[in-house]
TrEMBL record:
PROSITE patterns, A to Z: DAGK (PS50146)
Keyword entries, A-Z: ATP-binding, Kinase, Lipid biosynthesis, Lipid metabolism, Nucleotide-binding, Phospholipid biosynthesis, Phospholipid metabolism, Transferase
PANTHER family registered for this protein in UniProt: SPHINGOSINE KINASE (PTHR12358), SPHINGOSINE KINASE RELATED PROTEIN (PTHR12358:SF54)
Family per record: Belongs to the diacylglycerol/lipid kinase family.
UniProt domain DAGKc: residue ranges: 1-132
GO biological process: phospholipid biosynthetic process
InterPro entries in the cross-refs: ATP-NAD_kinase_N, Diacylglycerol/lipid_kinase, Diacylglycerol_kinase_cat_dom, Lipid_Phosphate_FormReg, NAD/diacylglycerol_kinase_sf, YegS/DAGK_C
Signal peptide feature range: none
Protein name: YegS/Rv2252/BmrU family lipid kinase
Organism name: Halobacillus litoralis
Gene Ontology terms for molecular function: ATP binding; kinase activity
Cofactor field: Mg(2+)
Length: 307
């Protein structure tokens, strides 16, 4: 038996289109697949929490058809009694988790392979906590500062509508980056790595990541790897907006780390404070805060793939 969670709105409706393709395959009908649809942008977490209570010894996996945001919610709601792996069927606009995991095949070959002969990937995710909040899991990265401002701009309904009308949904992050740049200003952060003495920096952004990719394929942390038990920390010190734009262009090929304003660390735990509430993003979902505590998960999570 398999559980399939589908976000039909993922990728501006791509989730529903891909599900209709899966439903036409022989594999979908040959297997015992129970399909459930999310009903709101924040519905996947509650749905996963409810479904994980199902006691079925024959449950082989939880399949997730959606974007990184959908998977983020599922991983925070999915708490099965036993060991039940997750398979991500990427249908969003970014799909950075799939890149980090090394998934290269399309949805249909991936779906068929996972049902026939799946390969297990055991990876380290990250945990984070906000003030007065409970501990949660992040799949890809947490970006504070400019990265968060870009994600916030990209999340504006009017902006997304225009990008969809212009058929530019694949370029949402770069377009939002250009739009968010003029009004963004550097800010001060206090950074404490692995309990050491705090360091004060004036920065454009600081990002903690589990694998190299963010923003729909940009190679932010070239040396980062899901198999590594420590997270990568990328800090970009204050610099001109023109140079920041040049930096992001070089991110696509992973050459930005050669710039003197870019600092790369590794850590088990990262504690960050800012003087004022600042934009940040978690797996592409924007919000604001003035304090973050992140740590690498102590154990690995199992995902199914075809490579």
């Amino acid at each position: 038996m398999y559980i399939l969670i589908v976000n039909p709105a993922a990728g501006n409706g791509r989730g529903l289109k891909l599900f209709k393709q899966l439903k036409k395959t022989k594999e979908y009908h040959r297997q015992n697949i129970r399909t459930f649809f999310t009903k709101a942008s924040e519905g996947a977490e509650a749905l996963a929490a409810e479904l994980s209570k199902i006691e079925a010894p024959s449950l082989k996996a939880c399949l997730v058809l959606g974007g990184d945001g959908t998977l983020h919610e599922v991983i925070n709601g999915w708490k099965p009694q036993g060991r039940v792996p997750i398979c991500f069927l990427p249908a969003g606009s970014g799909n950075d988790f799939a890149r980090g995991l090394g998934v290269k095949a399309g949805i249909l070959p991936l779906f068929k392979a996972v049902l026939r002969n799946p390969e297990e990937h055991h990876v380290y995710l990250g945990n984070y906590r906000l003030p007065k909040g409970e501990e949660r899991t992040f799949l890809n990265n947490i970006g504070i500062g400019f990265d968060g401002a870009v994600a916030s701009y990209a999340d504006r309904p009017a902006f997304r509508i225009w990008m969809r009308r212009l058929h530019l949904t694949k370029w949402i992050y770069p377009a939002a980056l250009i739009c968010a740049l003029p009004s963004f200003k550097p800010f001060e952060v206090e950074v404490k790595l692995d309990g050491q003495a705090p360091v004060m920096e004036k920065v454009m952004m600081i990002t903690m990541t589990n694998h190299p990719y963010f923003g729909g394929g940009m190679k932010l942390a070239p040396r980062s790897d899901f198999q590594h038990p420590r997270m990568s920390v990328i800090l970009v010190r204050a610099l001109s907006k023109q140079k920041l734009l040049t930096l992001f262009l070089s991110v696509f090929i992973g050459k930005h780390t050669a710039l003197k304003e870019v600092v790369e660390w590794e850590a088990d735990t990262v504690h960050i404070r800012t003087k004022h509430e600042t934009f940040f993003q978690v797996d592409g979902q924007p919000s604001r805060s003035d304090e973050w505590l992140m740590k690498k998960a102590s154990s690995k999570t199992t995902f199914l793939s075809n490579s």
